[in-house]
Every structure is written in C-alpha cells, then in structure tokens.
Amino acid sequence: MLRRNGKLRSCEPCRISKIRCDHATPKCEKCRARGISEQCYYHPAPMTKPAGTPRKQPGEARRRMVKPKHSETRTTRDHEILTPLYKSPTALRTGESRPDVCPHRGNPWPTPPESAISIRIPQETGRGFYLGSTSYASVFAEEHPLPDSVHECPMEGRRPTPVLTTRTSASRHCQVDIAQFIVSKLRPFSLFEKITEEYFEINKASALVGPLLMSALPQLRRDLEQLPGTGHESIAAYAEITRNTTRPLKVPGTLLASEFHTLFTGENLRWEILGLILVVAGSHAQFTSPDDPIFTLEDGTRINKDEFVEDMLHASNDCISVCQVHGAVNDIMVWLIYQNMLVNSNFYGDNYHGVWRRMSDTISALYAEGIHCEEGFDEPFFLREARRRIYAAAYRSDKMLATFFGRPPMMALRYSDRPMPLDIDDTILATSDPKVLNETISRLDNEGWNAEGKIWASSWIRLRFQLAMFKERILEHSLAGRRDGDVAEKLLTISTECRQYWESVPSQMRYELYDEESAWNDLEPGIALRMISAYLEYLHMEFQMQRILRRQTQLAVPALLEISMKLLSTVLVFNKLRNQLYTIQRHFPTIILFYCLPSAGVLALELRKCTLENVPLPSTVSRADVIRNLSVLISCVDWVILPGDGNHKLCSELNKMLTLILDEVLNYQPPAANESQADGSGNGLPGVTSGFFDMPLIDGMEPIPTESEDFLNWLDNANWSNTVSTNFNISPMIIPAVRVQDYLLTCYSIFFNVDGIQVLIPK
C-alpha cells in the first residue's frame, strides 16, 4: 500500500511512535518484536480528521495524540440502538476477545481499533409513543388515561447492542467480524433449504414469489461451501460480496424467471440474498412448534427454537445495516426489510416502536426503487407481478399499523399506478413457457380473478389490498386534523362501496358463506384462518366507521354495539379450536388483538355505562349475550397466547382491563327498591330496579323472587306447559328469555354437566 508520494505506508503504531516501519503484512516485524502485533494495522488515510472536528486555532500548541483509556459513548438524537458494523454480536455478548483481523494488500477497508466500540444497554422504561383515535388503546382511554404498563414492550429476549463511538468507523471500513457472524449463521445450509421449502408450502399468502427464491438455493449452497472460513481469503471474499452489494441490480426486460438468481448468486453474491434467507427461516420458525423435527440437524443436534429465531433476527438486522450503509436499493432489499418487519412484530410485539420504524424502512426502499410506478418500466413479467405483490402487501401492512397505532399512514395510493397482482399460481408466474402463461391469463375474468375457484397466494394479497384501499379512505376521516361537515354522508358512501366490493369477492374466499364446521373441518386450516382474518378485517372497517359517527352523535351507538358484537362472536370460534396445529394457533393472538379487543372494549364500557346509569342496553344487543361473550373472551385470551408471542404482554394488559370492567358490572349493587321504585306499572322486579334488569311481568306468571331459595322454589313450581321458543337453554319459557338469563348471570353461577343440563348455584 502506497502513500500519495509513492512511498510505502507505515502501520499505525509505528507511525504514531515515529518508528521506522518495515511495511510487512499482515503484521510488521517491529510490532511483533514489541509485542503489540494485535494493534498493528494500516490506515488508508491516517491524517484525515473525522467530520465535525474543529480546526486548530492559530497559536494553539500542537498536542500529542493520546489513545483514550475509555471509549466514549455517542448517543443518537432519538436514542436509537445502532447495529454493529464490524463486531460480532456473539462476541460482544459473551465478552470473548478476538484478535484484530488485518486486511491484506488487496483489501481497501482496514479494521478500525477496538476502542471504537462501547456497549449501551437499553433502559427498561416504557415510552409514551403517540397513539391516535383508531389505536388498540383508544377505546379504553376514552374516560381515563391508561397506565404506562399497557404500552410497555417486554424486555426479555432483548440483548444489548453495540454502538459505534467514533466517526472513523464509516462505510469504508471492513466489517469482517459481522460478515463472519452472518455466514456462520447460515451453516448448515441444508437446514435453511428445508425451512425455506416448508415456508412456501405452508404459507399460502406470502408476499414473496416462492419459485424465485427456491431457484437460488442450489447455487447459494455452492457459494457458501466455497467461502473460506477464516484468513485473508475470507476477507477478500467478504469484500467482494460487499462490492457486489454496492452495485445496482439491473434486471433486463428479457430475463427469464429461472435466470433471475444469477443476478445475486455465484460471482454476483450479495448480502441482501443472504439476509433474505435468514429472515425467511426466522419467520417460518416463529410459527413452527418447538418440538418439530425440523429443529433436529442431520447429526442429531437439537436446536433451541427461540435462540434460533433470535439469531436469525439479529443476523438479518446486520445484513440490512450493511446494505443500507453501502446504499443498496433493489427488489431483494425491499423483500428483506419487509420480511424483517414481520419477524420483528411477532418477536417483540406489534406495539414495539421498531416495527413502525422497519415499516418506514420498507416504504423508503420501495419508493426509492420505484416499485410504486409501473408505467414506463421495462420489466419481465415475473418481476412485474412480484413488484405488484410486494407493493400490495406493504400497502396493506401500512394501513394495518396506521390503524393499530392511530397514526397517519405512510403510503398513499394516489401516488402509485401499480395495479393489483393477477390471480395466478406462483409456478405459472415464474414459468418460462409463454404459451402456458398466456393461456392462464386468458382464463381470468375482467377483474383479474381466476374463474376456476382456486385460491392462490396472490388471491389473498388482492383481497387484502382492495380492503386496504377502503381503510385508507376511512383513516382520512378518522385521523384528519380538520373535521369535514359531511362525514356521515361520506362514510355512508364508503360503507356502501365496501359492501358491494365484498359481495363481489369470489365465494370460495368469503368466510360468512360457510358454517363453522365446514370451514374448519372440510377446508384446509390455513385457508379457513385466512378467510376469517379477511372477514374480520372487513367487519373491522365498519366498526371504525361507526366509531367515527359515534363521536358526532349518540344515535350511532346501537349500530356500533351491533358490529362490535358481530366481531366478538366471530372471533370466539377460536375457543373451539384448541386442538388446531401450532402453526394455526400461533396466528390467534394477533387476530384477537387487532380485531377483537377494541370491539370488546366498546361493549364492556357501554355495558358498564348502562349499568351505572340504570338504563338498558340498546335493542341491537342482548345484555346476557354481551356478558357471556366477554366472559368467554377473557378465558380464551388466557390460553390462546402461546409462549414466545410478542403480543403476550399487550393482550394480557387489555384482558385485565376487560376483567375489571366486567367484575364491576357483575358486582354492581343496584339501589334498594324503596329508593328507586318503578312508576307503579308493574314492570319492575321486586327489590331490583326496573331499569337495570328491565324485566316485564307476564300475565298469569308470578313475580320472580330475588332470594336464592325462593327463586329455586319458583323454578320448581313454574308453569312450563305454555312454551314459546327462546334463546335460553334451560327450557323454553313463556317469559323473555334474555331477561331471565340476565338475572341468572347476576345472582347465580351456572354449571353444565355432560348432558348439557344447566345447574344453578346461588352466588
């Protein structure tokens, strides 16, 4: 390595000590003799000052450069945790010391000294991030602010992350240790081949086009086998991968899908594709049972699932950091960041601020690559459809998170001309036979749906993308800073158009057209899960519109309670699905959190309000049904959240709030009869306010006693001969069943025996 004047460059210890260096590599003999070979390295520009260093003032004495004894901590503006650029997270966590890896003559990026690293452990305190009117917590916060514990994310599983402390460690420095960490996590590669294959077999709604990634696996295996483990050759190989990453990924318009992998494998190997394989493996592992045989290696070694997922997440984070430092913007980068966002949401929970940041990274890369624009681009068919898929998936996720957090969305459809993907199978999409492709496209209907009744991965993306378009319009009214005068009329228009679209959706994808037994027993569980999720998303939009209207008038309360009850009763089917596969049950907490808990909060608070004000609930819902369904939900949430789910703490906190509200309602003691007697018309229960139970007397029937023994005697002597159909399961009765059931839930505990007979025990 030569200096500008043509002379050989000295190593840093010799240069600073003013000792003649013999310029040997990788370690000079002078440093070896002095016993400081671990400090020997060659700096490409040793006299260059970091950006922002003040110039020496005239007359200022020249200071001797002294190496600091302790590394200084540089904190970022918003206290973000930066990803390490050159130090292995494993080495930093375990504290093991590793010798400096010095570059050889062909490597332009030397390794900086160890003094540039420090550790900062994130403080375990919750932060009050902004949550708007549509957020998961807004329902419960209408009367009183929620405690900070509701919003705190669990800290278990988070490890301290190293932070760079000097400006000298920028993009021109070699990231040898982190490269070794990334590559080491991909061994044995046979495990990743198996996991990736299972991922696309099970996940029938992935935003990724499976054949495009699967075709790259054989070449990636050869690439990783040829990568040297340590030494100077490995440094050169990592530097070459980094150089490939800095180059644009140009896709010719005539490229075949089977040839796509040649742009990022082999001699063109890039960090993006390695990170994508890692994050796909982590995503699949999150929804796989810890006892699954896939976590057993060929030599019999057993892998810990939680540690594996965490390693995949950290390694993919490292890949993203390296690629972002070197300015990588391409389709694979967008896929990598989007999948990483999904893994983060499942690992840390959807209320983790890092999920929101990663969604922003996805959209930034997507716009930078121009994926939102289709006109004027010369794209091969498979890439055009892949871009439609990832755009639709990112757009839908943006609207989901915007609603969940109550924040403005980051993507707007008005700035894009990218249409929905076609409803075709992935294998057809990636085919090299134009005849097969054209024949498949010709069989699609005018809207782009397949006319054969098949359900492909693109089918779900199309459906959710269209629903997200309606959701964006709803968010404009829900989160708008200025209120529009004709909100009700505009929401009615949106509701009508949304209902018309839903009725036009192919019948094989509409959950409400199936009964529960046929949906969950006759269809594949994964299909039924996505069907109910799409149906709940459709109902949730009506729920959000009714919440907007309720802020303007109380006349919207009956419709709001009705749609809330529909959401709650639909989700409660999960309580019957306790024997489903781990892969299916793992999705339950997210569905309950996004669609069920807000509607349950509306019902619980309205029930509490009517109880305290001594007025009946609107006729659109039954008080007994509300109490019963809320009780079932509270019990369901306790078992449905499997260990390791990132949403565990948030669901538990919201479930506790539902429990407190329901306990308050059931423990409520109405005023004595002589204090608030009814108007004398005989429409109230003796000893109980008529407004609370609203139990009218029936001709020919004795008043229902309120004491437990008297009530049991009354049941024994009741006239059951003149019966009418009711909703109460003890027996058909001539009295309004809902009112009796309401009374029973308040005064008695009801147990069921094996024959379905109900037994009443006084509380």
TrEMBL record:
UniProt-listed Gene3D superfamilies: Zn(2)-C6 fungal-type DNA-binding domain
What are the entry keywords? Metal-binding, Nucleus
Q: Which GO terms describe its biological process?
A: DNA-templated transcription
A GO cellular component annotation here is: nucleus
Which residues are the signal sequence here? none
Q: Where is the Zn(2)-C6 fungal-type domain?
A: 10-42
Pfam families per record: Fungal_trans, Zn_clus
Spell out the subcellular localization from the entry.
Answer: Nucleus
Species of origin = Lojkania enalia
Note down the stretches annotated as region Disordered: 47-78, 90-116
| Primary location class | nucleus
> Basic and acidic residues bias located where?
57-78
Instruction: Report the InterPro entries cross-referenced here.
Output: Sec_Metabolite_Reg, XnlR_reg_dom, Zn2-C6_fun-type_DNA-bd_sf, Zn2Cys6_DnaBD
- Could you identify this protein by its name? Zn(2)-C6 fungal-type domain-containing protein
Taxonomic lineage of the native organism: Eukaryota, Fungi, Dikarya, Ascomycota, Pezizomycotina
Q: Which GO terms describe its molecular function?
A: DNA binding; DNA-binding transcription factor activity, RNA polymerase II-specific; zinc ion binding
